[in-house]
Amino acid sequence: MFPTERDTPAPSVLARAVSVLDAFSPDDAAVTVSELGRRTGLAKSTVHRLAVELCRLGLLEQTPRGLRLGLHLFELGQLVPRRRDLREAALPLMEDLREVTRARVHLAVRDGVEVFYIEILGSKAYPGLPSRVGGRMPAHATGVGKAIMAFSPPEVPAERIRAGLTPCSPFTVVTPGTLLRELENIRRTGIAYDREESGVGTVCVAAPVLGVDGRALAALSATGRSTQLDIERMGPAVRTAALALGRQLAARRSGSGGPEPTTRSQSA
Length: 268
Description:
Helix content is about 45%, strand content about 20%. It is of the alpha+beta class.
């Protein structure tokens, strides 16, 4: 080996175990060890060894058709403070917003260059929309993502741009200048739109949930079909709900003396 070469550290056991868990998709009823090996790039024997231990810990479950995610993961997810605190404060407002708009209502936070859906209230008027609790989308392709980026430090949209403005539909904003101009307009109005940018046929209107420092902690949105939902008319209702949630979170912080909910990736 030449002196200038460096060894690349082998993934830790924990990293490999997480890669196995990350290999599951929402549509998976069960996945075989061989398929997990293909998805992760790990040897079948390694996947089998990790799967045995993950099953023992309740993070995976063995079924006749293969492996599936275990209930212990769900239990752990319910304990995440940020999800719990935001969800508890947001649910009454989300229910009111759904009642007013008849739309599917989302609560999302930023995680790196993506948005992560903490809670979703479905709507009978719009069945079959693809979003799900725990799902992720590129921040630039969603109303909630643009609402959060508009009220975040400049480094946040810059990070998204560096990662690439990958299209999710023919209507996704994919040029940095266009995205930055749209974020500036969102800062003026407090309202963001997704006009079939996350997927053809789906639209939404979103607004940021602001902390006491004026930066986005999360975002709320009302989502539906492009042929049915008038997102411009829904904007004020979504904005009002987001402002109310921000005030509630600020009041909770004042009462407890604790910090506002954050994640490591949002400290930028």
